[in-house]
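Sequence, please.
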């Protein structure tokens, strides 16, 4: 057993090495520069610095929109990214067997239920959740469990749920929560069945727990070894950032694309198409795909769609599509699993359910 994301060491037999190589270890760039990461980071840093250095009057309107949007997104996302990195670093130090013991056996109904509940109650923004979800895959969770975890938690943190209740009411919020949980469970179940049938690749980090595994003793030993000092927390954060590099890369790309849309696309173009119709629902999904909005930003936007466009189904779709169709999610999953099939399974499994739920909600809400 090893605490690294690559899971158990492969057997000595060279013929079996390739089949036991972890997805997170395969094709690792040794010494190569991540141009996408550093280019997007440079653009974000430049726009952020311009906003504070030049102010609002010393730049063109389009540049002001881009710099102001960058500052807004960075200030909204930073805490979730830091918290997500801490959890990723923590998960990296927890033995793989203990993680699987807590989540339950991959491919089982109990395992899916635990992953869904974890997603519902994990109080992190959507970007922090994504970082944790990718680490769970590296620690051996099945793709169905990871999918259920991600789909259940785009906005279902305690704080945002309270805000949503204030904006759209208790009963509609409860409907949103129940529908997201059902979609998460069903999507995770279908994903695991596709893996069982060989249509999707299995997680190479998977481990089987021994029959006599003592998770209580493992937790006790971890607690005794734990250190809560600034040095240890800093080390945890550094490990988490390194482990989350692929996710952070696409978050930065998402910020750049989002501010380009804000600078050059009139928001009224989106707002006039958000009515409670099939066309309005489609436009909502397109907007949710294009706009890189953290869960804190998605919640008030969804409430605005709910009230001004009188389209509860569109509001639900806007919240859920932040995971289902978002390019940050898709590319992070692809980079983590090394599989386009797994990445594309996310929208293919979830989007039809989101559309059906949105149409039903629009019908009941009208």
């Amino acid at each position: 057993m090893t605490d690294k994301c690559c899971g158990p060491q492969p057997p000595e037999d060279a013929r079996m090495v390739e089949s036991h190589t972890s997805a997170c270890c395969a094709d690792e760039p040794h010494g190569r520069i991540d141009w996408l990461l550093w280019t997007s980071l440079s653009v974000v840093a430049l726009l952020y610095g311009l906003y504070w250095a030049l102010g609002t009057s010393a730049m063109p309107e389009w540049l002001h929109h881009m710099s102001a949007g960058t500052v807004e997104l960075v200030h909204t996302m930073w805490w979730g990214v830091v918290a997500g990195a801490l959890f990723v670093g923590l998960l990296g130090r927890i033995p793989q067997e203990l993680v699987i013991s807590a989540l339950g056996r991959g491919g089982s109904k109990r395992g899916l239920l635990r992953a869904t509940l974890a997603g519902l109650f994990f109080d992190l923004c959507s970007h922090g959740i994504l970082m944790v979800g990718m680490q769970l895959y590296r620690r051996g969770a099945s793709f169905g469990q990871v999918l259920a975890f991600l789909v259940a938690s785009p906005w279902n943190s305690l704080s945002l749920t309270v805000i949503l209740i204030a904006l759209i009411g208790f009963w509609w919020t409860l409907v949103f929560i129940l529908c997201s949980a059902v979609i998460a469970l069903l999507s995770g179940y279908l994903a695991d069945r596709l893996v069982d049938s060989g249509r999707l690749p299995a997680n190479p980090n998977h481990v089987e727990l021994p029959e006599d595994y003592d998770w209580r003793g493992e937790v006790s030993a971890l607690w005794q070894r734990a250190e809560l000092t600034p040095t240890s927390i800093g080390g945890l954060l550094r490990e988490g950032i390194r482990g989350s590099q692929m996710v952070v890369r696409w978050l930065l790309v998402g910020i750049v694309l989002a501010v380009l849309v804000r600078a050059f696309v009139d928001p009224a173009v989106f707002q006039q198409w958000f009515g409670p119709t099939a066309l309005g629902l489609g436009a909502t999904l397109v907007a949710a795909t294009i706009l890189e909005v953290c869960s804190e930003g998605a919640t008030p936007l969804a409430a605005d769609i709910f009230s001004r466009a009188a389209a509860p189904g569109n509001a639900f779709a806007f919240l859920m599509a932040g995971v289902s169709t978002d390019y940050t999610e898709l590319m992070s999953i692809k980079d983590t699993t090394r599989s386009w099939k797994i990445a594309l399974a996310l929208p293919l499994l979830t989007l039809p359910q989101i559309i059906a739920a949105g149409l039903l909600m629009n019908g009941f809400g009208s």
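The radius of gyration is 21 Å.
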